[in-house]
Every structure is written in structure tokens, then in C-alpha cells.
Specification:
Elements (H helix, E strand, L loop, with lengths): L1 H25 L8 H27 L2 H25 L9 H34 L6 H25 L2 H26 L15 H25 L7 H20 L6 H21 L5 H25 L7 H26 L5 H14 L8 H25 L3 E7 L2 E10 L2 E8 L2 E7 L17 H8 L3 H5 L8 E5 L15 E6 L2 H10 L2 H4 L3 E6 L2 H11 L5 E6 L14 H10 E10 L8 H11 L2 E7 L9 E7 L2 H5 L1 H6 L26
Parallel strand pairs: 5-6, 5-8, 6-7, 8-9
Antiparallel strand pairs: 1-2, 2-3, 3-4, 9-11, 10-11
């Protein structure tokens, strides 16, 4: 029996270690967005479905001898493939279809090993049930979720902070090697003595299948929707991936380990409270600090998962249908992943799947049992569901009465709204939940920079006064300057371009480019020559360096946002080394660090010290026309630029003490240490 337990524990540990590892690996190539995590989740759901399907076929179609031969061969093939692929598979290459390129890369590198791992849970449990018919195999399912939970909790606190990505992957390879040896030992010595493939298994009814699928899909959609909500404002790093997923797994552990640990009435009432909290968070979440948002979202997630998985545990079949039950759960998980990754971006222009799945879970928890409810309870729950739906619709219409344009794609959700500010109508671009550019609609004010880019901010000073030392020495206003802007937004920074200047914008999200061109006039009205390059700023700059050499920017601006979530790969030491190669020797690097949740000052200051740069901090308070306070850091070796009176007057004291230990590299970037 210990061999069964160790094997299933290790398989779950490896499965859920590779999820954050692979997503962390992929993030820099796809802009650091939360969609990378949901795409990885879809891949793992697909592999679970493939593994469970294979396990069901293997145990019901083949003899015991054939099972040994087929599965033993697959284990050896997967082991050889993993070590070969790890040495030859190159970095991912983003395409016009990012979801497809992510799935293809993951399949090439991890497909066969993950098929073996995914099949391990149902296979080992089925073999256990045949070997020990008087014991419940579902306790092993709870144990597998303990292994999964251990993997998730260890990654952000132990694995990621201490091991480079390359060593993480090598360690995972050796872990899979150990699992392969355990599986081969299990096949050789621990399988049941007689084959059970001839056993007749009663088919589940279509209604039962439908309920299994619906509950499983709803749990996955809720997990992904909550993760999306959390990572709109904070970088989608492993910590914020694994905490929701850990609670998702904890609900499985509780309901499948002890039946009495799931009390439907208690969790239903908690979920009802969560529905009210959800409406508040969706529309007024920015009024709460990060920790309050995290606690409230996780309460909603956990109560919803306890309902979905508790009902699944109530309906679990006999051991003879075990693989079929897990197959239905895996298929439901895939359907949930497809809903979030494929259908939702096509059919919905915002993250509406969050309130929709909450309503679906409430109905799934109440309707099948409505005949057992007394009349007043039945009326109360159904009335609550109707009230939630109507209130969600009313709040959505109220908030969107000023909306001019809204769209959603792989990279997130964009909204353009015309809103009166201090008596003047401003058109505002909102990415996620944060404004990323605004423009007056009145003709004679359209070329006035607003928001984070208004006159007097750090970036405005850099673009107005940042010019070669030769130009400063003779007092001339330098013409023909070259600016680089990582991040487009509404295109506001184009107003600082003069005739003869060249400005290159680097923007990952094609929806941002089309929105800036169609709904704002900054790009069209600029006197400078404008070029917009689509792609991740760091990757495009790297390609330009290799193919064209240094761009020799006078000023390079780093302003790549997805709401408040700044992609970490743009703020590592290696990234700064690349930026400096594209700057003139006397150029200026302007870094936007305004953020509600992260204190990035030590990250940037430590980079400045490493590269021998002077770093100046600029804080611009909010005013009536610009409701957001702004923080920029300028880095340069140009002493003439620093000594200018306008720069000296605007530069301020650093808001927090320097922490020399915060050193971000491509291998190490601990988000927890920079939370405010």
C-alpha cells in the first residue's frame, strides 16, 4: 500500500509544480499578462482529459498483462522524450495566435510526460481498488490533492525565490524520473493478481453525466475568473496564481476525504454572502486595499468550490465507475477552460464570466434539490438568484453609460469612456481597471497631455529637456531627436514630439494600437514621425539590436502597463542592460512606477547603482483635472541634464528607504518583497 500512496502523491506534486513553472517560463514572451496562466491551465486541463481517457481505456479494454506492457512502454517513452526535448526545444516564438502558440510549445515539451502523470491518479486508484476491494480508493484522491497543494504552496515560497528557472526545470526532470521508476515498480510487483477488464460497468445516466460536467466546469470557470480579477491590478506572478488554485484543491481534499466535512447549507449561505461581495468588488474593488480584495475574492472562490466539489463528492459512484467519473470531471474542466480561453473573449467584451458563473453555481446548488426545500426557502433562493442577476445588469448599464468603445482579446479588456472631469469632457482609456491615457475632446485642448503624462511629470521633463550634451552645451534646442516608448496607451506622449523628431512606440496588444489610432488623435496630430511596432517591447528591442544595432534613443520611456500590473520581465537587470544598449551614452531612461500596490523604487534604484547611473525621483500630486498622482524615475549619466534648473526643482526625495536586497533578474524577482 505505501507504494500506491507514494506514487500518487509524487505524481500530483509534479503535475502542480510544472503549472507555475511553465507559466513563469512563458510570461516574458507574451507580455506578462494573466492570460498566460489561463492558457496554461487550459493545457493542463486538456492533458488531464487525455490522461483520464487513456486510463479509462487501459483499464476497461486491455488485460492485466497488456496493461503492464502498454503503460510500461509509455512511461519509458515519456522519460526519454522529456530528457531529449529539454535539450533541444528552443524558447517559445509568439505568433498572431498566442493561445495556439502557447499550447503547441507546451505540448512539444511536456505532452508525453504530462499524459503519464495525468493518467497516474485514476490508474493507481483503480489498481488499488482491485488489489484492496474493502478499502475506498477515494482517500487516495484526497492524498493526491494534498500533493498538489504542497506543490503549489512550495513554489512561490521555496522553489521560485531560491532556484533559477533552469534548475527548476532540471529538478522537475529528475522528479519525473523518480516517478517513472515508481510506476514501473508498481506495474511489476503491486498490480492486482487477476485482471478485472471483463467486469460489467453500468453506464451513468445522461442526467448524471450532465451534472458531473456542469459542476466540474463551473469550478474551473470560477477559479480562472477569480484569478483574472485578482491579476488585473497586480502582476500575474506565481503567488497570485497558486493561492486561488490551492483553495480550489483544498476543497477537493475536504469533500473527498470525509463526507461529513461538506455541509451544503452552511456553504450555500456563505456563497450567498459572496454574491453580494462580488458585485461590490467588480464595480468598486479599487476602494479596497490589496489584502482586503484578496481575502474577499478567496472567500467567494472557496465557498463556490466547496459547493461544486461537495456536490460532486455526494454523487461519486462505486469504484467500478471510478475512471468514468474522473473522465467526466476532466471533460468538465476542459469545457470550463475553453469557455474562459476561447468563447468568453469572442462573445464577451469584458470579464462577464465572473458574475455569470456565480449565478450558475447558485442554480446548480439549489435547483437539483429544490423539491426537498420548504416553499419559503425555495422562493428565497430563487428570488436571490433573480435579484443578483438584475442588480448585476443594472450596475453594468449604470457604469457603461459613458462608454464609447469596449473590446476584449487575449491580453485583456479595454474600455474608452467620455467622462466629465472638472467641467471638461475627457476621453479616457481604461485597461483592466486603471486609466492609461486621457484626452480633452475640445478641439483647442486636444494636444494637451493629461494624466500620468501631463506637463511637470518626470516623463514630460525627460522629453522636454533630455537632449545630447552637445546641444545643451551650446544652448540650442536640439532637433531630430529619437524617442522610444515601451507601451502605447492612448498615445499621449506623442504630443512632446517636434518636427524632425522620431518616436517609436512598442505595444504588445493590437487592440491598444487600434484604439489609440481610432479613438484618440495624439498620434495623428503629432508633429513628429510616429512608428508603432507591435510586439513585446523587450523582445522587439532585442530583435532590433541583433538585426539593426542600437537605436540610439535620446530618451527611452518604460510605460508598459496591464492595469496596475507591470510585467516583471521588463524590470529585470537583463532588461535594463538591453535598454542601455539602445540609449545614447548621454540619454535618459524614464521608468513609470505609479502603482497602487507595488513599491518599485528599490528595484529601479538598485539597477541604477549596478549600471552606474544617477536616479532621480519625480512625484506629481493629483489635481482637479488629473485625479491620479504620478511617480516617475529618470536614470542617466548626463550631468548637464541633471543640473538644469527645471530638473532640480522638480526632483524630490525618495518616498521609502532603499532595500539593497531587492535585486530583480530574469531568474529571481520576488513580488512579495515589494508589496506596499
Amino acid at each position: 500500500m505505501p507504494l500506491f500512496a507514494i506514487t500518487i502523491f509524487l505524481s500530483a506534486l509534479l503535475l502542480f509544480l510544472i503549472q507555475p513553472l511553465a507559466a513563469r517560463w512563458l510570461l516574458p514572451y507574451y507580455g506578462g499578462g494573466a492570460a498566460v496562466w489561463t492558457a496554461c491551465m487550459l493545457f493542463f486541463q486538456l492533458m488531464l482529459l487525455a490522461g483520464y481517457s487513456y486510463a479509462h481505456w487501459l483499464t476497461h479494454r486491455l488485460s492485466l498483462k497488456q496493461q503492464r506492457t502498454v503503460h510500461g512502454s509509455l512511461v519509458l517513452l515519456a522519460l526519454l522524450w522529456l530528457w531529449w526535448a529539454g535539450s533541444v526545444v528552443s524558447a517559445p516564438e509568439p505568433s498572431g495566435y498566442p493561445l495556439l502558440s502557447i499550447l503547441s510549445w507546451l505540448l512539444l515539451l511536456f505532452g508525453l510526460p504530462l499524459l503519464v502523470i495525468a493518467a497516474s491518479a485514476p490508474l493507481v486508484q483503480r489498481w488499488f481498488a482491485d488489489r484492496f476491494p474493502l478499502r475506498s480508493p477515494y482517500r487516495l484522491y484526497a492524498l493526491s490533492n494534498v500533493g498538489s497543494l504542497g506543490a503549489l504552496l512550495s513554489y512561490p515560497f521555496i522553489v521560485e525565490p531560491w532556484l533559477p528557472l533552469s534548475q527548476q526545470f532540471t529538478g522537475w526532470q529528475w522528479g519525473f524520473t523518480g516517478l517513472a521508476l515508481l510506476l514501473l515498480a508498481l506495474l511489476r510487483w503491486q498490480l492486482p493478481k487477476a485482471s478485472t477488464t471483463s467486469e460489467a460497468v453500468a453506464a451513468a445516466s445522461s442526467r448524471q453525466w450532465g451534472y458531473w460536467l456542469s459542476l466540474s466546469a463551473a469550478g474551473v470557470v470560477l477559479l480562472l475568473a477569480v484569478t483574472q480579477q485578482l491579476t488585473q491590478n497586480v502582476p500575474p506572478v506565481p503567488f497570485l496564481w497558486v493561492v486561488p488554485l490551492a483553495l480550489y484543491l483544498l476543497s477537493f481534499i475536504l469533500v473527498f476525504n470525509r463526507e461529513h466535512w461538506y455541509q451544503r447549507a452552511i456553504w450555500l449561505y456563505l456563497f450567498g454572502i459572496g454574491l453580494v461581495l462580488a458585485l461590490v468588488l467588480i464595480h468598486f474593488g479599487r476602494l479596497f486595499d490589496l489584502y482586503s480584495q484578496l481575502a474577499l475574492y478567496l472567500l467567494i472562490l472557496f465557498s463556490g468550490c466547496m459547493l461544486c466539489h461537495g456536490e460532486l463528492a455526494r454523487l461519486k459512484p462505486a469504484a467500478s465507475q471510478l475512471t468514468r467519473f474522473y473522465l467526466a470531471m476532466a471533460l468538465g474542466g476542459v469545457l470550463g477552460g475553453l469557455l474562459v480561453n476561447l468563447l468568453a473573449p469572442l462573445l464577451l467584451n469584458d470579464f462577464h464570466e465572473f458574475p455569470l458563473v456565480l449565478l450558475a453555481i447558485l442554480l446548480l446548488a439549489v435547483l437539483p434539490w429544490q423539491r426537498q426545500l420548504v416553499l419559503w426557502r425555495k422562493v428565497a433562493w430563487l428570488s436571490g438568484a433573480a435579484s443578483f442577476a438584475l442588480l448585476a445588469i443594472w450596475l453594468h448599464l449604470l457604469l457603461n453609460q459613458f462608454t464609447v468603445h469596449q473590446e476584449r482579446n487575449f491580453y485583456g479588456s479595454l474600455v474608452v469612456r467620455d467622462i466629465p472631469v472638472a467641467g471638461e469632457l475627457q476621453r479616457i482609456l481604461i485597461d483592466g481597471t486603471t486609466s492609461h491615457g486621457a484626452q480633452y475632446l475640445v478641439e483647442d485642448q486636444r494636444q494637451q497631455a493629461l494624466s500620468y503624462y501631463r506637463p511637470g511629470t518626470g516623463v514630460a521633463l525627460a522629453l522636454q529637456y533630455g537632449q545630447p550634451e552637445a546641444g545643451l552645451a551650446n544652448g540650442s534646442k536640439s532637433a531630430g531627436r529619437h524617442f522610444g516608448m515601451v507601451g502605447l496607451g492612448a498615445g499621449t506622449l506623442a504630443v512632446y514630439g517636434k518636427a524632425g523628431d522620431r518616436i517609436q512606440f512598442y505595444e504588445l496588444n493590437p487592440a491598444v494600437i487600434s484604439t489609440a489610432q481610432q479613438h484618440f488623435s495624439y498620434l495623428a496630430d503629432s508633429a513628429a514621425t510616429i512608428e508603432v511596432l507591435q510586439g513585446d517591447g523587450r523582445l522587439v528591442l532585442q530583435q532590433q539590436l541583433q538585426q539593426q544595432g542600437s537605436q540610439q534613443f535620446d530618451v527611452l520611456v518604460l510605460d508598459a502597463f496591464s492595469s496596475d500590473a507591470i510585467p516583471q520581465h521588463l524590470l529585470t537587470r537583463e532588461a535594463f542592460a538591453l535598454y542601455l544598449q539602445h540609449l545614447r551614452a548621454d540619454g535618459v531612461l524614464a521608468v513609470h512606477i505609479s502603482n497602487n500596490y507595488l513599491d518599485l523604487t528599490s528595484v529601479v534604484r538598485n539597477h541604477a547603482h549596478h549600471f552606474g547611473l544617477d536616479a532621480l525621483f519625480f512625484h506629481t500630486p493629483a489635481d482637479s483635472q488629473n485625479p491620479a498622482a504620478t511617480e516617475w524615475v529618470l536614470l542617466t549619466t548626463n550631468q548637464d541634464f541633471i543640473r538644469q534648473e527645471a530638473i532640480q526643482q522638480a526632483a524630490g526625495n525618495w518616498p521609502t528607504r532603499l532595500n539593497p536586497a531587492i535585486q530583480w533578474t530574469d531568474d529571481f524577482s520576488n513580488l512579495l518583497r515589494v508589496l506596499k
